[in-house]
UniProtKB/TrEMBL annotation:
Domain statement: Domain I is involved in oligomerization and binding regulators, domain II is flexibile and of varying length in different bacteria, domain III forms the AAA+ region, while domain IV binds dsDNA.
Spans annotated as Domain IV, binds dsDNA: 380-499
PANTHER family membership: CHROMOSOMAL REPLICATION INITIATOR PROTEIN DNAA
Name used for this protein in its record: Chromosomal replication initiator protein DnaA
Subunit structure: Oligomerizes as a right-handed, spiral filament on DNA at oriC.
InterPro entries to which the protein is assigned, alphabetical: AAA+_ATPase, Chromosome_initiator_DnaA, Chromosome_initiator_DnaA-like, Chromosome_initiator_DnaA_CS, DnaA_C, DnaA_dom, DnaA_N_dom, DnaA_N_sf
Region of interest (Domain I, interacts with DnaA modulators), residue spans: 1-126
Keywords: ATP-binding, Cytoplasm, DNA replication, DNA-binding, Lipid-binding, Nucleotide-binding
Length: 499
C-alpha cells in the first residue's frame, strides 16, 4: 500500500474523529473544507484550505490536535503542513510545525516534539571562559567552559523545533508589565557567554510566556543556524521520559535533551507530584547548567509557589533570573489589538469595537485575540459589517463572562460625580447641555458596560424612551471621534468602572 493511500485512509478516520469531537456547526464551518494533498513523504501530511483566514484559524486551534490524530494512526508522521490553496494561485504555506501554545477553545492535546538527533557532549573551547551567573551562583556547580554549539554537517542545518513563526521579539508588545522578562529573554538569546541560566518566566495563562520562549528560540537560531534547540512542554517531557523507560531506552532520551544548546520547557507546574519525572528533570537541569548551556523554563507561578515540586528543583530555578509578566492593563490590551489588526489588512474593525474588546476582556491576551478573531470570522461568514452591535451580538457569552458586573446605578453615581452633578440630575427632565451631555454619556456607558436592554436603560434614566437611548449612544460615538475632551472623559470613566 502506498503512502498516499495510507494517508487517505488516515485522513478519513481523522475527519470522522474531528466531526464527532468538534460538533456539527464548528466542523461544517472550519474543518469540513480541509482537503488532503496527496504526497509520498511519509514524515509529512499536507492539508489545504481555500482561504488564508481559515488556514490561520485551523492552525491556531487544531495544529497540535491534527498531529496527534495522525500520529496515532501513522506513527511515522512528524509534521502536518496546513496550506492555503486558492484556485489559480500557488499554495501559501502558513504552518509547518505544530505550535506550542495557541489560542485553543478546547483543551489542547499533548504537544508533539520534533525529535533531535543525539549529539556528543561538546568539547571545551581552547580557552575556556567561566560562566558568569550574574543573578546568583549555585556553589554546588563547578564553573564550566563556554559551550560550543554543536554543529551539524556543513550545509545541513539541525532539525528545527516546533517554534511558532509569529512569536518573535519584533511582534512582542512591550510595556512596563513585561519589560524585565522581555529584556532578559533578548539577553539570553544573544551569542557569546551565558550571562545567566536558567531564565524562569512566570505569569498567568495567556500573558506572553510562550511567545517569549519561542522568540528566544528564533533569535538563538538566527545567530547559530546549526544549534540544537529543543522546545517542549513539561507534560511532553514527562510523556517522552515514560515512553523511554517503557522502551528501556532512557540513555537516548537523556542524550537528546542534554545535547541541546538551548532547552525550552513550558508549563513546569505539570510535573508537580511526578516523582520519577522530577528526578530526571533535576538531573537534566543540572547537566545543562553545569555545561554552561541555555535553559528557559516557564510556569504559571513563581518557583517558590510551585506546590508538589521538589525543593532542590525550586532551588535550581532560583539560581538564574526569575522574571514575571503581569496582567496587561487597558492600554497594553488596546495596543495588542492594533498589532493584531496588522495581520488582517482586509478587515476594517471600528475603534469603538476595539475599545469594547480591550475594556471587557482582561483575563489574558489569548482570549483577547481569540475574541477579535471570532468577530472577524463571523463577519466574513455572514457578510455583515462589523460595528458595536454586531460585536456585542457575536461575543455575548464572552463579554458577559469576562466583564465586571457594572450596574446602571454605579454608572450614574460616577458620571454625576465626574461632572459635579447630583445623581438626580441625570434622571430629571432638565435639558441644559451641562446636564444633557453627562446624561448621554451615562446612557452610552450603560449600553457599553451592562447587558440591560435599551428600554430598561431608558427607564433607569427617568422613564425615557428607548429611541432617546439610541440617540444618546450615537451622539457620544460621534463626539468621541471629534471632541477630545469627551473621548478622554469616557475613557476615564470606563477605566474606573471596570476597576
Amino acid at each position: 500500500m502506498t503512502h498516499a493511500t495510507e494517508a487517505e485512509k488516515a485522513w478519513a478516520r481523522v475527519r470522522a474523529s474531528l466531526r464527532e469531537s468538534a460538533g456539527a456547526r464548528l466542523f461544517e464551518q472550519w474543518l469540513k473544507p480541509i482537503e488532503l494533498i496527496p504526497g509520498e513523504d511519509r514524515d509529512t501530511i499536507r492539508l489545504a484550505l481555500p482561504s488564508a483566514f481559515m488556514t490561520n484559524w485551523v492552525r491556531n486551534h487544531y495544529a497540535d490536535r491534527l498531529v496527534l490524530e495522525f500520529k496515532q494512526i501513522l506513527p511515522n508522521v512528524r509534521t502536518v503542513q496546513i496550506e492555503t490553496r486558492v484556485p489559480g494561485r500557488a499554495p501559501v504555506m502558513l504552518a509547518i510545525e505544530p505550535v506550542a501554545d495557541s489560542a485553543v477553545v478546547e483543551p489542547a492535546a499533548p504537544k508533539p516534539v520534533v525529535e533531535a538527533k543525539p549529539v556528543a557532549e561538546p568539547k571545551p573551547a581552547a580557552q575556556p571562559a567561566q560562566v558568569v551567573m550574574k543573578f546568583g551562583v549555585d556553589p554546588s556547580l563547578k564553573p564550566a567552559p563556554a559551550p560550543v554549539v554543536a554543529a551539524a554537517p556543513v550545509g545541513v542545518p539541525a532539525e528545527r523545533p516546533p517554534l511558532d513563526p509569529r512569536y518573535t521579539f519584533a511582534r512582542f508588545v512591550v510595556d512596563p508589565s513585561n519589560k524585565v522578562a522581555f529584556n532578559a529573554a533578548k539577553v539570553l538569546a544573544e551569542p557569546g557567554p551565558v550571562r545567566f541560566s536558567p531564565l524562569f518566566l512566570h505569569s498567568g495563562t495567556g500573558q506572553g510566556k510562550t511567545h517569549l520562549m519561542h522568540a528566544i528560540g528564533h533569535a538563538f537560531l538566527e545567530h547559530n543556524p546549526h544549534a540544537i534547540v529543543l522546545c517542549m512542554s513539561a507534560e511532553r517531557f514527562m510523556y517522552d521520559f515514560v515512553a523511554a523507560m517503557r522502551a528501556r531506552d532512557t540513555h537516548a532520551f537523556k542524550q537528546r535533551l542534554r545535547g541541546a544548546d538551548l532547552l525550552l520547557i513550558d508549563d513546569l507546574q505539570f510535573i508537580a507530584g511526578k516523582d520519577a519525572t522530577q528526578e530526571e528533570f533535576f538531573h537534566t537541569v543540572n547537566e545543562i547548567m553545569a555545561a554552561g548551556k541555555r535553559l528557559v523554563i516557564s510556569a504559571d507561578r513563581c518557583p517558590q509557589a510551585l506546590e508538589g515540586v521538589e525543593a532542590r528543583i525550586v532551588s535550581r530555578m532560583a539560581v538564574g533570573l526569575v522574571a514575571d509578566i503581569k496582567a496587561p492593563d487597558l492600554t497594553l490590551r488596546r495596543t495588542i489589538l492594533d498589532r493584531k489588526l496588522v495581520d488582517l489588512p482586509d478587515m476594517r474593525v471600528p475603534t469603538d469595537v476595539l475599545d469594547l474588546l480591550a475594556a471587557r476582556i482582561h483575563a489574558n491576551i489569548r482570549e483577547l485575540e481569540g475574541a477579535l478573531n471570532r468577530v472577524v470570522a463571523y463577519a466574513q461568514l455572514t457578510g455583515d459589517t462589523i460595528d458595536l452591535d454586531f460585536a456585542v451580538a457575536t461575543l455575548g457569552e464572552v463579554l458577559r463572562g469576562a466583564q465586571k458586573r457594572v450596574t446602571i446605578d454605579e454608572i450614574q453615581k460616577l458620571v454625576s460625580a465626574h461632572f459635579e452633578l447630583k445623581p438626580l440630575d441625570l434622571i430629571s427632565a432638565r435639558r441644559a447641555r451641562a446636564v444633557a451631555r453627562p446624561r448621554q454619556i451615562a446612557m452610552y456607558l450603560a449600553k457599553r458596560l451592562t447587558t440591560r436592554s435599551l428600554p430598561e436603560i431608558g427607564r433607569k434614566f427617568g422613564g425615557r424612551d428607548h429611541s432617546t437611548v439610541i440617540h444618546a449612544v450615537r451622539k457620544i460615538e460621534e463626539l468621541r471621534d471629534s471632541d477630545r475632551d469627551i473621548d478622554a472623559a469616557v475613557r476615564v470613566l470606563m477605566r474606573e468602572l471596570e476597576g
